[in-house]
Known about the structure:
Blueprint: H1 3-17, H2 23-26, H3 29-45, E1 51-57, H4 65-72, E2 74-81, H5 85-97, E3 104-107, E4 123-126, H6 136-142, E5 154-160, H7 175-181, E6 186-199, E7 202-216
Parallel strand pairs: 1-2, 1-4, 2-3, 4-5
Antiparallel strand pairs: 5-7, 6-7
The structure holds S-adenosylmethionine.
S-adenosylmethionine is lined by residues 31, 34, 57-58, 60, 81-84, 87, 110-112, 127-128, 131-132.
Amino acid sequence: xxxxxxxxxxxxxxxxIHPHCxxxxxxxxNQLSSKKWMIEELKNIVDxxxxxKIEIVGSWYGYPLIQYLRExxxxxxxxxxxxxxxxxxxxxxxxxIFESKDFVSVYGKNYWEHxxxxxESTLLINTSSEHMKESFYMMxxxxxxxxxxxxxPLVVIQSxxxxxxxxxxxxxxxxDELISKHKIRKVFxxxxxxxxxxxxxxxxxxxxxxFMVIGQI
Length: 217
Ligand SMILES: C[S@@+](CC[C@H](N)C(=O)[O-])C[C@H]1O[C@@H](n2cnc3c(N)ncnc32)[C@H](O)[C@@H]1O
C-alpha cells in the first residue's frame, strides 16, 4: 500500500537534490514494462525457493527492478554496479526509503574492469547492454584460469535498437544478435517486444524494439 507513496517521496527528493536526473524516465512505460517482462520470464525459469545472489550491471537507480525482484525471488543479496555517481546517490536513497540497505550494496567501479575474486552470483542482470560493449563472457575469459563466475549463473541481458540515442553504442537488431554478441552458450529464453511509451495522454507501441535473452555463458 505504501509503495506508491515511497516512489512519490523518492521523486520529490530526487528532483530537489538532483534536478537534472532522469527519475521520470526511469519510471516510464518503457522501463516498467521491460523490467516486468524480465520478471515474468525469470519466474518460468527460476525456482523461487532457490536463494539468489544477484549482480546488476549498469544498475542506474536500482528501482523499480529491485522492487520486482524482491517480490518474486528469494534473495540473499543484490550487488548494484554503476559508474555514475549521481545514479549511485539516488540508488542509495531508494535503499533507505524502501528499506533494502541490509541486502543491497551499490558499487562505483566499472564492472568490466574491477578486480576481485571469483563471483558467487547466481543471477547476472544487464538491462543496459546497449550502453556497453563488454559481456559477462569477457569476465570469464579474463579470469580463465580460475573461472570467475563460480556457480555458472543465470544471465539476463536486454538491449534495443534505439540507435538515435548518443550513449547507445551497442544496439542490436535481433535476439539472435544479442545471443551471439554476448556468447550465450545455453539459451532458455530469447525474444523481442515493441517498446511502449507515452504518446500524448496514451501509452502506445513505438517502432523500436527491446530484445532479451536469458541463458548461461
Ligand atoms: C542510463 S542507464 C540505462 C538503463 C537501461 N536502458 C535499462 O533499461 O535499465 C545505463 C547505466 O549504465 C551505467 N554504466 C555504463 N557502463 C557501465 C559500466 N561499465 N559499469 C557499470 N555501470 C555502467 C551508466 O552509468 C548508466 O547509469
